[in-house]
């Protein structure tokens, strides 16, 4: 039954508009295929990585990032450089895992954050800081790359006063010393205690070499003075522990 407000002209126009929309959609799809076929997929993925690593993205960047990801999905769905895209994404995932593994690695003395007493493992500081980090600190090793060097201006007060430097070499905050053993009784070679590099350790610089030799000399005195665990002893706590472990080892041997 024909409706009262039926118009054949309007129906023909609606069919024509629908047909034109299908044609335009098909043409748009074909144009997108031709455009993405001529673009290297690696360039698109590189742009995506750069935008994702950008800290202060605005709405324009987010929209562009979304369009790039849609292009990659369109290329994979329509078989445009699909194998190349899969290979690139696989390599990018492997690199990301390697970076995460390197960021968590403990470099020890090679780390720029290494401290013999406070941070012997060279762990990257992340908590307990007096300030808030804008981004995580890099897990860098020594020597730093030239690209990571930061030029800092001199203090204007120091430049104005120009105080003279003290004479002598610059101070050393840490130095190497070695734990030595007592001379064995009845040793015909007459050699003194042997130094073992495996027992070397870092100690604060204020424990001078002279005080260490003085402490070691007192260890060879009479039994009345041979008490390294006395409170008046000048030995460092680490040296007292080393002497205690040595005495326990000798007691087990006898």
Automatic annotation (TrEMBL):
It holds the Pfam family NpwBP. Residues 160-254 are annotated as: Disordered. Residues 163-172 have a biased composition (Pro residues). It comes from the Eukaryota. Residues 210-223, 241-254 have a biased composition (Basic and acidic residues). Signal peptide: none annotated. Residues 189-201 have a biased composition (Polar residues). This is Piso0_003999 protein. It comes from Pichia sorbitophila (strain ATCC MYA-4447 / BCRC 22081 / CBS 7064 / NBRC 10061 / NRRL Y-12695). The lineage of its organism: Eukaryota, Fungi, Dikarya, Ascomycota, Saccharomycotina.
